[in-house]
What we know:
The protein is mainly alpha-helical. The chain has helices at residues 5-20, 28-37, 42-46, 51-58, 107-120, 124-127, 134-141; strands at 26-27, 64-68, 76-80. The relative contact order is 0.12.
Amino acid sequence: MSGTEDTIIEFLKDKANAAWKDQKPYLLSFAGPSMVEAQIDYQAILNGERLKAFVERTAGEGRYHVVKHPHQRAKVGIVPSGIQFEFEDAVHEEVASAPRPVHGESVQGAALLSFLGALSALPAKDLDGVVIPTRVLVRLAKKR
Length: 144
């Protein structure tokens, strides 16, 4: 195993170009094992410098461009130089969990609030068709 910083740069540049054929960045999490497989002792070459720091230091100058996920700190990749790429910022809608009973509130009361919350998410035309007898609502709200 041998090489220089230029060996690593060329390796990463080739990987970024290959990954970009599928319109995807080359993730740095794959780089370490791939370099070991290619007989490149990147840890010795970098002399203690982290791969991410090395890539950020050597990016540009027609080599590659570093891209980072907006919320997942560990998701760092490289794309060919001149390519503009941003990870999708998929906003995961938080699934509304059933409200937990507050001190003094019954589990049934929390169930009723959860049920009403689910109903409030229905479209108006569907909501018009929902008919719930009052005695059912009262029973859901009662403490036992």
